[in-house]
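User: Batch of two.

Assistant: Item 1 of 2:
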Amino acid sequence: MRHLLAVATRGYPTRAARDRAIREELDLTPTRCFLLLNAAIDHADTLRIAPVTVNRLRRIRETQRTAREEGPAS
């Protein structure tokens, strides 16, 4: 779990660099990594491990969800 959080939240210069790190360090596709991460941030154990990171990721997820539900700005 810690490796998933670390790789997924580290700053990368490009998406390609992030995706490459996910593949090399976690042996996962980026899609699978973010599916697992999305599920993990809802667990209390993950919140205990990295509360600041988990809360930040939850806020980002909620912001993106709200934007999708509202649709494109007119």
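Item 2 of 2:
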Amino acid sequence: MLNIQNKMLQPSYDVVIVGGGQAGLCISHYLQKAGISHVVLEKETELTHSWRRKRWDNFALVTPNWQCLLPELLTKGKTLMAL
């Protein structure tokens, strides 16, 4: 009986997303909008850890800013603003 109770207490998700980077957060956003249960698993202590902590002084993108944004975010100059 205890085994059945333990299984009932464990959360259940339709989708498991491994990694809380840009791609993981994007898919999480669209799954949430679609009403699909999911969880994002990230090995670091914060989401987007690489964006915040791993920087290269000479790194530059050659793509427009809008291609590098998370869903439903707009840019105003260099500042990201949520809708």
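The chain has a mean pLDDT of 77.
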